[in-house]
Amino acid sequence: MFATAGNLSVKSNLENSFWITASGKHKGHLTEDDFVRTSIFGLELLESSQGNKASAETSIHASIYRFQKKANAALHVHTLDSNLLSFHTTQTERFKLVPIPPIEIIKAFGIWEERPNLQMAVFYNFGNVKQIAESIERFFETHPDYPLPFVLVEEHGPTVWGNSIQDANRHLEAVSFLFQVMTRSK
Q1: Which CATH class is domain 6-185?
Q2: Out of 61, 65, 102, 172, which could bridge 9 as a Cys pair, Cβ 3.0 to 4.6 Å?
Q3: What stretches in the chain show pLDDT beneath 50?
Q4: Where are the domains of the chain?
């Protein structure tokens, strides 16, 4: 992760809450004091040290935790390739499903079908992050069987999730590779 670009979270063992990187923290130099605990449902700040504030993208992580039952960790990054991909989503449509190539790396998502026809959810990059989170929630409400462990906010970055931090990191590595293939094939 470059500088402060992105955020990391993990579900807390305390009911209905998660820990997320505080706003403005350099991701290469994190300590325990650089995380805040937030409610999954009300986005209420529950624990913080040194006056830290929750990341602006906390609402996206909360949406993931509310709708993806296997999500115990979520990583949001701003990669070069994810910023280069453009699918022309609009404010009106809010999201679209975009085909992804059936390359070998999708096995990292637990998809073993030969040459599957998969589509990733791509969301319009609203200036107000809560609108992005609302779009993600609407998507999950209408697509409860979405098979991929990630979504993409167009010209911004992906958010991946997993049952553990290790799973989420594996998904992030696979998504990064997938986006490299997609940008080079255009």
Answers
A1: alpha beta
A2: 61
A3: none
A4: 6-185
